[in-house]
């Protein structure tokens, strides 16, 4: 991965293009200056999350300059005439800036797109923006990694040649001349084509995640063994849905399909673990209407997520659900009966986006409330959007069901290495699947909706069926 150090001279109307090209050519210097200007302050004052965001910002800037440079190189190669290239570059730059500026105001909501903006043109522009953003960053990281490996390989070959020369001078000199000879045109063309294919892969993957994988719902069946499970609940089946996020990229048609799939699994109990809306409070009526189609013999129960707190709909959506026979458990429990035996299902609210000290106080209060709700002689199943109390030795919670993290921030390479996802990189300990700690169990559902960028890659939407069994 190399960038030419020359700056083309374009006169007259090409002066803007010249400055544009100068920035692209010297992107490494620009990034270095940004690092020197900001890193000292961040290290002294910022938390790890802010440092992570700063690193993402630098990678984003570097990736955009890198790919703009590659596009300009292609323009010089295939488009005749400097004035024509300059005009096309300016036009492409204006389109890029329009898409970026159009999408940027939505970043203030924290997750990329305003839930109230359902216009087709807005959806298409946001989709294009996030496809390019995710694809270009992933491709830049891939090309950079391959470039580093290539340089390391060349350095190792150079060390090897020098070692050979020092021990077998005549033979090594001949061998070195062969290795150092010019690359054949055929091999150079093959390497260029391979580089294009490699760099295109993340763009194709981002398109796949945008157009297909975010709709590709996986039914996950998980057997849960519980030491205190009453005999009457052997084989009891719980279906879990989480993170619905009704919005522009999670449509009513899609949610209705997930409801039909869940009913088709014929669970005994259905639980919902928060985030029914994205950002728009007006979506609460529609999402409740859609989820009202869920059916299970022992009922449908749920807890509230952080997005209900963000949208300010915690009380109103609770009433809407109750009118449809779905009970939101808010610091309360419900008993599920089989003859004379019971299990306890408990729900607690998510604290939402509050100052750190307020969240700490609220979490302490929730913990005290939870202690009063636990039943010592039977299984306690806790519904919580994010699991703050998992593994707490003073709380006898047999099974916690949660969501929130979308399988790792919707981008995950766990198939390459466990923990290689956005949430894992931030040090979040429980991201997806089943976890055990201090005799308690936690299941993290990947959710069915999306928030932020409308892409899922390596983190398919999930409906979970948990079958309870007695520990033998």
Tell me what you see in this structure.
This protein has 472 residues and is an alpha/beta fold. It is built from 14 helices and 12 strands. A hairpin with a 2-residue loop joins β10 (433-437) and β11. α3 crosses α5. The longest helix is centred in the first third of the chain and has 48 residues, at 120-167. It starts with 14 loop residues before the first helix and ends with a strand. Mean pLDDT is 82; it is low at 1-17, 108-113 and 176-182.
Protein topology:
Elements: H1 15-25, H2 27-45, H3 48-78, H4 82-103, H5 120-167, H6 169-180, H7 185-211, E1 218-226, E2 237-241, H8 252-264, E3 269-273, H9 283-291, E4 300-303, H10 306-311, H11 314-323, E5 326-328, E6 332-338, E7 341-347, H12 356-373, E8 380-383, E9 399-402, H13 406-409, H14 422-425, E10 433-437, E11 440-444, E12 462-470
Parallel strand pairs: 1-12, 2-3, 3-4, 4-5, 7-8, 8-9, 9-11
Antiparallel strand pairs: 2-12, 6-7, 10-11
Helix pairs in contact: 1-3, 2-3, 3-5, 4-5, 5-6, 5-7, 8-9, 9-11
